[in-house]
Amino acid sequence: MPALVFRLRNVPEDEAEAIRSLLDDNHIQWYETSAGNWGIAMPGIWVNDTEDMPRARSLIDVYQQERSTTLRSHYQQEMEAGDAPTMMHRFKQHPLRTIGIFVFCLFILYVSINPFLQMIGYSKTG
Predict the structure, then answer these.
(1) Rounded-to-integer distance, Cα 47 and Cα 69, Å
(2) pLDDT average, residue stretch 62-79
């Protein structure tokens, strides 16, 4: 019976490809499902045989741990070299977008808080 071994929603393509290769290299039969036309189904990688599930999951866990360590060390090197993107760096790249997002956040905050501020104001005068 098939078993879901890896969910693909919000997974970078390079990581998904590495998982596919990992399963192929270890002779684990698998298939992939997409999110469908509407994007509401569960995209994932499934193993054909439930007996392969623990071995596949173990291989994926080891791969993800190595990937995490590698990406963290790469980010740390960028931070030490001063190449990591900061808020100011992103503002300089896209000033209008950053200002627009900030103004939108202020608008949402105003719309969320304004009714309560009006109730406080009405209770003091009444």
Answers:
(1) 26
(2) 94
Tell which CATH classification among 3.40.50.10890, 1.10.10.10, 3.30.70.1530, 3.30.300.10 matches the domain 3-81: 3.30.70.1530
Give the pTM.
0.67
Residue 122: pLDDT above 70?
no
Given a cut of 80, whether residue 125 has pLDDT beyond it is no
44 Rama class: left (phi>0) / alpha (psi -120 to 50) / beta: beta
One DSSP character per residue, 2-25 reads: -EEEEE-TT--HHHHHHHHHHHHH
